[in-house]
Amino acid sequence: MKPFTYERASSPAEAAAAAARNPAARFIAGGTNLLDLMKLEIETPSQLIDVNGLALDTIAATPDGGLRIGALVRNTALAADFRVRRDYALLSRALLAGASGQLRNKATTAGNLLQRTRCPYFYDTDQACNKRRPGSGCAAIGGFTRQLAVIGASEACIATHPSDMAVALRALDARVETVRPDGTARSIPIADLHRLPGETPHLETSLVPGELITAVTLPKPVGGTHVYRKVRDRASYAFALVSVAMIRQEDGTGRVALGGVAPKPWRVEAAEAEMARGARTVAAHLLADAKPTTDNAFKLTLVERTLGAVMAEARG
């Protein structure tokens, strides 16, 4: 691990301004992903800005009937919150499907959204990776691609986004609140937070340098039956091969988002209009532009079958 300086921020605006002054600075809260990356020298920050003292660790009702989740709320606390379990069960179930209990006790809401890909070529510093080192190439293309993206990828990167929580938030139409280095705040639709790789896979979000996530807001509950199903290689502590987040209403309408198949949580609203026609039709719309490899073509069938199982569970 490379040497770094450490400081504690006293306000979100101060933290954002400090990070903007030093492009090699990184925020740290739970550190469950960042510290691993530092040990591997994939991340080599010259400065860590500790944001744990910023009082962003509460969950509160919003005036319009939703919830505002502080950026520092730990995943365990969020999954256990009675309002989340009652009104946003999709989120609670996705959180409990991710990581281990110990990691959930440390991992934060904002950190979960910003965690890096688990593409093995990203973690192997002897391999070319445009996400880790822009312009170096992508060893995953032509390599072993079983875990990697079947849709939304590019000629520069085929990594997937690893978060379970983000998939649920995409289906729930969450928004992400931030503060920028100039002290101004903004609210970003979760659909616009994560970027597709294109030719710049190292740019993973729409955040500007130094911009700090302060909260995630959920709109008022939409009701329905909430189901989150994660298919993985082993029952615990593994990232999704495919995951499905679904909200189904009694009239058969609903929402669906996928994880494990793309560089960001994958939702195609037009596909949701086909829910009454069954899993095969919905999957076909969700993955209409898929370009799988020989190694991961099975994900197309896996999405359809998982969708079918989730639809059956949601119908009861």
TrEMBL record:
Keywords: FAD, Flavoprotein. PROSITE patterns: FAD_PCMH. One of its GO terms (molecular function) is FAD binding. The keyword Transport does not apply. Residues 1-223 form the FAD-binding PCMH-type domain. It comes from the Bacteria. Pfam families: FAD_binding_5. PANTHER family: ALDEHYDE OXIDOREDUCTASE FAD-BINDING SUBUNIT PAOB, XANTHINE DEHYDROGENASE SUBUNIT C-RELATED. This is Xanthine dehydrogenase family protein subunit M.
